[in-house]
Automatic annotation (TrEMBL):
Annotated source species: Paraburkholderia antibiotica
Keywords: DNA-binding, Transcription, Transcription regulation
Record keyword Ribosomal protein present: no
Protein name, entry field: LysR family transcriptional regulator
Pfam entry (one): HTH_1
Annotated family: Belongs to the LysR transcriptional regulatory family.
GO molecular function, one term: DNA binding
Cell inner membrane listed as a keyword: no
Gene3D superfamilies per UniProt: 3.40.190.290, Winged helix-like DNA-binding domain superfamily/Winged helix DNA-binding domain
Domain HTH lysR-type: 8-65
PROSITE patterns, A to Z: HTH_LYSR
InterPro entries given in the database record: HTH-type_LysR_regulators, LysR_HTH_N, LysR_subst-bd, WH-like_DNA-bd_sf, WH_DNA-bd_sf
């Protein structure tokens, strides 16, 4: 009997369980859509392997021997485990279970991902998600190097050859401290800010690169006196009157009631940015990652 694991097949086990449940080879054959003779042959092969009878054939059906009862008990456990495995693998295949690694820029992490991930987790609670915050340039590098499943960044140069999906749009506004000359202004343009003292993010942040590019078009440079690593710190620096700052509108609105600042809309096209989801090949994403991308892009 040491070779049973190699010689038993799942079909025979399933048919034998059906025979035990129906107490009839004919009824089991009908249930499993197979001929009674084929079922009888399978049982005979099992008995030959075991060396003991598993059923006793009677005029009105069959009775199961003690050996057969033991075989049926273990066969049912095997079938149940395989069905559970199939169900779990199916959850992986449909994106319902697994893990996803994302790298995203500061704007996406702070403004949109918390609520979107929360909604996704309500649908796919067994998907684990790891999010790393990086600049847009580093997001693209991580995606190209295959360190993550996908990235979220601003639409910037360097996305060539990547599979892109539109995620969100955000609008930039000017944040000024209370009492600033632009408090109460309905809109502002960048040329009106030349000469202002700015608080900014790190030089490699997409927001700062955008501001530098727009200032260059005006043959000017922005006077950035202080640089910080987070939007939270940026807003607090404006609050204590260390300068003005350009921030995403949704971030600025979070601080209107807690900091002594005001927001002024920027009336220029560059102030509306597009956030993109980037991956090397959407078709090759693992199911959990593909499910999350589809969710974030509205394909739910």
């Amino acid at each position: 009997m040491t070779q049973l694991l190699r010689k038993f097949d799942l079909t025979s086990l399933r048919l034998f369980v059906a025979v035990c449940q129906e107490r009839s080879i004919a009824r089991a054959a009908e249930r499993e859509c197979i001929t009674p003779s084929a079922v009888s042959r399978r049982i005979a092969e099992m008995e030959a392997l075991i060396g003991l009878p598993v059923v006793i054939r009677e005029s009105r059906g069959i009775s199961v021997t003690p050996v057969g009862e033991a075989v049926a008990r273990y066969a049912e456990a095997v079938i149940t485990n395989l069905e559970s495995m199939e169900a779990e693998l199916s959850r992986y295949a449909t994106g319902a279970k697994g893990s996803v690694r994302i790298v995203a820029n500061l704007s996406a992490v702070v403004q949109f991902l918390p609520e979107d991930i929360s909604s996704f987790k309500r649908v796919f609670p067994e998907v684990d998600i790891e999010i790393d915050e990086q600049t847009s340039a580093n997001v693209l590098r991580s995606v190209r190097e295959g360190d993550v499943d996908f990235g979220i960044c601003n639409a910037i140069p360097g996305t060539e050859g990547l599979d892109l999906r539109r995620y969100r749009s955000d609008r930039l506004v000017l944040m000024v401290p209370a009492g600033h000359r632009l408090c109460g202004a309905t809109t502002v343009r960048l040329h009106e800010l030349i000469g202002e003292q700015f608080v900014g993010l790190r030089c490699d942040a997409a927001l700062m690169k955008l501001l530098a590019e727009q200032a260059q078009k005006l043959d000017a440079t922005l006077d950035v006196k202080i640089r910080v690593g987070s939007l939270d710190a940026l807003c607090r620096m404006v609050h204590v009157r260390l300068g003005v700052a350009v921030v995403p509108q949704q971030i600025g609105e979070l601080y209107i009631n807690t900091l002594n600042v005001q927001l002024v809309p920027i009336a220029e096209d560059w102030a509306v940015r597009t956030l993109m989801i980037a991956c090397r090949n959407h078709e090759r994403l693992a199911a959990p990652a593909a499910a999350l991308v589809n969710f974030l892009t509205g394909k739910r």
